[in-house]
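Backbone-to-sequence.
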């Protein structure tokens, strides 16, 4: 079916609406394993909680001029988003299903799979209280899923003469001589009646794990006696503590190359596993301190990635200072000290899309999945929350710019505490053009555009946020800020030895 500026009814309750002036072609794909009505999700999608709500849709987008890349910094986010859409999928949900819905656009490129995930929006006529009611099922209001374009750098190429090129299953767009094949999957997962309890039961529990000199993780230190067996009470001991980032854990984010280099200089290296969605960083910090016996004397260097930086700052600035835990130095990598735009509820799908695509990109480039990719199960939980229009998650809200938590953390009355402990930061302004795979370079550029960052960033956090600690009162010295050009998931990669060397000089120089 091909229509222009009109609704394309794909099934009894699903329609595709092209954007103004956009011509689209779409058809319902042939049933496949995991198709509508199956208990298993489509085999190519990395989900287990979500199952198909409808048969997948193959989408064709004829070549047409694209909006200028200037929308990256557009002041009017709504106008920029509208320019970035080729259309939208409209779904009339069945209230009896009591389900949360997401749209997954699976884009096949010669470089690998790009995942563009979209949370539902309420139709314009829907009231704020409509759509999904937790525990009460789904209303009959229409759910709208924007379908984003893949940005074409420069003028689009000429239309190919061979019609067969555009006639294949799911072909969506051509950039140069690269064909992008698109398939759209509408998925659903059961509504969780009490979502915070559901989330808390499935996230990491607060655990401190010893780390070997080879970067291997030992069993958690559980109970005061396990700590005393590892650390002699009363004797000062030097410790390096690593704190992971949002929707991650110690195992898939630990900077193992750094640990191999730093281990000889410490009595012990520890990693802190903790929940990052349902609990805010202040509570994370308190849970850590509660595990340590009062008769220990640990002198701790703090190393954190992403949201973990807010946890280690909470240890220094918000928690009561105690002899058992003496913070010595603090270094953060890509941390949202002034927040990240992707922490806003409306941008959770952009956050997940970027993270999953970055993992797919690393897999296609090296054959190894990105070690800092999000924990898949936590991705599903966050998307279930978004699909239920449920945004009251303290761990995510803590990263919202100008939010309540960051307002407390960056308050001027905490400055004296921060001055007592030297801080350093690693920042990054990632450039997608450094990606050799054209497909992923284009896709990641598009996803950052859709996030409306409008400023240098590492794909997840704005660069200026990474060093904005208690600003404008506190200004970090230039020699404690290391600028890089890596993406959010690559700070600890072996090839980024200059970042490791900066960290080593900071931690081990005094």
């Amino acid at each position: 079916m091909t229509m222009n500026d009109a609704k394309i009814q794909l099934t009894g309750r699903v329609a595709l609406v092209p954007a103004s002036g956009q011509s689209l072609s779409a058809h319902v794909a042939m049933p496949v394993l995991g198709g509508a009505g199956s208990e298993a999700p489509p085999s190519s999608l990395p989900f287990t909680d979500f199952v198909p709500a409808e048969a997948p849709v193959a989408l064709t987008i004829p070549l047409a001029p694209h909006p200028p890349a200037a929308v990256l910094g557009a002041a009017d986010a709504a106008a920029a988003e509208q320019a970035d859409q080729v259309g939208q999928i409209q779904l009339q949900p069945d209230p009896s299903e009591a389900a949360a819905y997401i749209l997954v656009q699976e884009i096949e490129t010669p470089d690998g799979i790009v995942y563009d995930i979209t949370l539902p929006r309420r139709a314009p006529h829907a009231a704020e209280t409509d759509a999904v009611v937790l525990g009460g099922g789904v209303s009959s209001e229409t759910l709208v899923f924007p379908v984003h374009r893949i940005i074409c750098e420069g003028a689009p190429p000429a239309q190919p003469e061979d019609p067969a090129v555009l006639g294949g299953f799911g072909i969506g767009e051509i950039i140069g001589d690269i064909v992008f094949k698109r398939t759209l999957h509408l998925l659903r997962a059961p509504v969780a009646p009490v979502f915070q309890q559901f989330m808390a039961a499935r996230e990491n529990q607060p655990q401190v794990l010893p780390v070997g000199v080879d970067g291997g993780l030992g069993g958690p230190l559980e109970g005061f006696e396990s700590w005393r067996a590892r650390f002699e009470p009363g004797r000062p001991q030097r410790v390096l503590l690593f704190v992971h980032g949002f929707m991650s854990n110690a195992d898939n984010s630990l900077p193992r190359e750094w640990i191999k280099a730093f281990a000889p200089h410490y009595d012990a290296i520890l990693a802190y596993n903790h929940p990052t969605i349902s609990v805010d960083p202040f509570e994370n910090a308190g849970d850590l301190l509660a595990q340590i016996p009062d008769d220990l004397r640990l002198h701790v260097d703090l190393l954190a990635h992403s949201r973990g930086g807010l946890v280690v700052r909470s240890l220094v600035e918000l928690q009561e200072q105690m002899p058992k835990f003496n913070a010595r130095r603090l270094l953060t990598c890509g941390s949202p000290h002034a927040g990240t735009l992707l922490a806003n509820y409306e941008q959770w799908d952009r956050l997940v899309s970027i993270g999953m695509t970055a993992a797919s990109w690393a897999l296609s480039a090296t054959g190894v999945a990105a070690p800092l990719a999000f924990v898949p199960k936590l991705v599903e939980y966050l998307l279930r929350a978004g699909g239920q229009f449920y945004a009251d998650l303290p761990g995510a809200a803590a990263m919202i710019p100008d939010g309540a938590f960051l307002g407390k953390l960056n308050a001027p009355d905490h400055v004296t505490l921060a001055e007592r402990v030297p801080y350093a930061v690693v920042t990054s302004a990632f450039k997608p053009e450094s990606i050799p795979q054209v497909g992923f370079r284009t896709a990641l550029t598009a996803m950052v555009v859709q996030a409306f960052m409008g400023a240098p960033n590492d794909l997840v956090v704005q660069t200026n946020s990474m060093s904005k600690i208690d600003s404008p009162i506190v200004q970090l010295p230039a020699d404690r800020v290391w600028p890089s050009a890596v993406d959010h998931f690559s700070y600890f990669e072996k090839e980024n030895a200059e970042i490791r060397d900066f960290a080593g000089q900071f931690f081990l120089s005094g």
